[in-house]
Design a protein that fits this description.
Blueprint: H1 2-15, H2 20-27, H3 31-38, H4 46-56, H5 60-64, H6 70-76, H7 82-105, H8 120-130, H9 141-147, E1 152-155, E2 165-170, E3 175-181, H10 186-202, E4 209-211, H11 218-221, H12 226-239, H13 242-253, H14 260-270, H15 274-283, H16 289-296, H17 300-308, H18 327-338, H19 344-350, H20 355-362
Parallel strand pairs: 1-3
Antiparallel strand pairs: 2-3, 2-4
Helix pairs in contact: 2-3, 7-18, 8-12, 10-12, 15-16, 19-20
Length: 364
């Protein structure tokens, strides 16, 4: 209960844009006490909790009662068919395994800050600054997000399930996870993962989110909740900092009339989705609306491969394909095995190996 109370106090404080000192002053408690409450290291008295509840205009019960866990709310709903629910159960297993490995190894992730009262463009700018990225392309988005507290599970999802990505936050375990369909091209996976990262930074307390492929189509995104357009704008600015992109175009390409070859060169450099890049170029007025609509219809993938060579854009296909393990997940498995927290059979299963193959790598 102590952890639940602390989590809810921090959530409300951050939503109002208050510091711990601001809240402490308002409820006549010390900032050190507020900090310990939020960390779950102190239990509030009835009097102190009453002050806090009154300040936030909440009933005391709000701070004590647990709400339904993310996966439970998804699996008990009637919006998803049985195939989608089976997939979410696999995702849940991955999340449970990941959290168990962190606990075994003592390597718990730290959450990134929650952003409030900020534009999507500003959030992208501030997050790049926080991560010390400068204006250069992100070399490995998936590892970067994982180090920032958002492990990304990449798994091939059949077309009929109609899921591009998903985000869940286990509030009382203080852990977040994203799922990305690895049947998409690598550039689309990068965009999807960054989109879910936007939910993580802005919407983590607003329940689980499932995004279908239409979310990433400019003509359709306005049909969805406003948060989708917000995090999509964040994702585009995070992956393609406008000032750096303009500098790149004007210094290297030295032209405001971009050819398809120029655009594919830019896409290759930034490793971003082609249609997402077109949206940014249109906004920056490097291509007209008419040119944008024309390029949307082009079969660019084969042409790019012919120009620059194939990068095997489709990572994996087929329902039986396995998930793509992150480097940190693999590291956690090996660490847990070396600490004798898991047996070789279980470690091999986590790593999609047979026992003999695993033992040959382990030197045992």
């Amino acid at each position: 209960m102590i952890r639940i109370v602390g989590t809810k106090i921090r959530k409300l404080r951050e939503e109002m844009g208050l510091t711990q000192e601001d809240l402490a002053t308002s409820v006549e408690l010390s900032s050190e006490f507020i900090s310990l409450l939020e960390l779950g290291r102190r239990s509030p008295s009835l009097e102190s909790l009453s002050r806090i509840a009154k300040f936030f205009d909440k009933d005391i019960a709000y701070f004590i009662l647990e709400k339904q866990e993310s996966f439970d709310s998804l699996l008990k709903g009637d919006k998803l068919d049985s195939q989608a629910k089976r997939l979410l159960k696999k995702f849940r297993t991955y999340c449970d395994d990941y959290m168990a490995l962190e606990e075994m190894t003592g390597r718990q992730s730290k959450l990134a800050p929650l952003y409030t009262n900020v534009t999507a463009e500003k959030m992208a700018e501030e997050e790049r600054r926080r991560l010390d990225l400068g204006n250069d392309p992100v070399s490995d988005v998936f590892s970067l997000l994982e180090q920032s507290g958002l492990p990304v599970w990449r798994f091939p999802i059949p077309d009929e399930v109609n899921i591009a990505g998903a985000f869940v936050f286990m509030e009382y375990k203080q852990m977040a996870f994203a799922m990305v369909n690895s049947n998409q091209s690598r550039s689309k996976q990068i965009l999807t993962a960054t989109h879910e990262y936007g939910h993580y930074l802005k919407d983590r307390h607003n329940g689980p989110i499932i995004d279908n492929p239409d979310i990433f189509i400019e003509d359709y995104i306005t049909l969805y909740h406003g948060r989708e357009k917000y995090v999509q704008t964040f994702a585009l600015h995070f992956l393609l900092p406008p000032e750096k992109l303009k500098d790149f175009i004007e210094k290297d390409l030295r032209s405001k009339q971009l050819s398809l070859e120029d655009i594919l060169y830019i896409r290759r450099y930034y490793q971003v989705n082609f249609l997402a890049l077109l949206q940014v170029l249109k906004k920056l007025e490097y291509i007209s609306l008419g040119r944008f609509k024309e390029l949307q219809k082009r079969d660019w993938e084969e042409y790019e491969d012919a120009l620059f060579g194939s990068r095997n854009a489709a990572i994996t296909q087929g329902r039986k394909a396995r998930s793509l393990l992150s480097a940190r997940f693999v590291s956690l498995v090996w660490d847990a095995f070396r600490l004798k927290k898991i047996a070789a059979d279980k470690a091999a299963r986590f790593l999609h190996m047979n026992r003999e193959e695993f033992l040959s790598f382990s030197g045992k």
